[in-house]
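--- STAGE predict ---
source: upstream dedup step, 1 unique chain passed
mode: sequence only
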Amino acid sequence: MLLCLKHHRLVDRNPTEFPADRLLAFKTEHESRVARATNFSISQPSHVLQVRAAIAGARVASLTREDIWQVLTAARHFPATDAPLVVEMADLGYSDMDAEFYQTCEATLTRKLETAFAQHGALHHSSHLSVFALAPMPILMVLGKILGDARPSTIYQYDRFAESWCWLDPKCQDVRSFSHTISGPEDTNHVALVIDLSATVDSDLVGAAMQPYGDFPTVRFTTPQPAYSLIRNPKDLRTFHERMRECLNAIETKFGSQCTIHVFPAMPASTAVQFGRLLLPKASPSLRIYDHHGERAGFRPTLWLVRRARRRSGLKKSAAFSRTA
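--- STAGE serialize ---
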């Protein structure tokens, strides 16, 4: 057992405190840890992307090297680069109360991702991406739209109670259920999509934000028990992706491809990113994202995830878009 000079002397001078069985336990534990750390094939590297922006004026949790190693090891990946790709938007000079905040964040996010990806050309093809993102929901949705779903990616969820990026229950066999309902008038071009996942959105606040559009239908996408800790493992996130795609298909089938979907989200960060990933900007209806801020006591429109030009006449409802179309 090879030690440095300092610790060799410490062990040799204290045989009672460091008996042979204790030293053998140290050696076994160290060898096991090294074996776990090196038990990877060359096909398992992952580029680590961290995206951060202040939420309601407060800085969000940081991501340490220990966090990265712990999470990626559990997923049988290892960091593809010495340092993660970091997109920091905490010091833009605006808060999310300012009108310029979201447009500035979107431009900054797009520019910084292009710069980061340009340094690693493989990111445009098949390299795996591990995403650790905390920001206001409209920004997370834009991030998902930029990333798309063609590149293999794992979107991680931060557990604010455990203060950890590790999955809450990675081996859980029960998968979360999601469903949607549609109510209200059908002959309209403006639809409110209310997403009740981390909490229940106040219908009165949605009505106040949609007032300029007159009578409108409401589509509610929800789960039996909304909670911040809703997403426990990748299976829950995949199920969300599938059910939300079905929901968007149903909206387009009922209201046509020329409708505008106004999105009022209360959802975990990972699902916001995943929402952006499932969109088809050239085929989806227009989508406008609203944000709720406690100090405003209401919703306000922020960014367009998709904005399509309207035809002047002859609007007809099209068949639902699909990922394979």
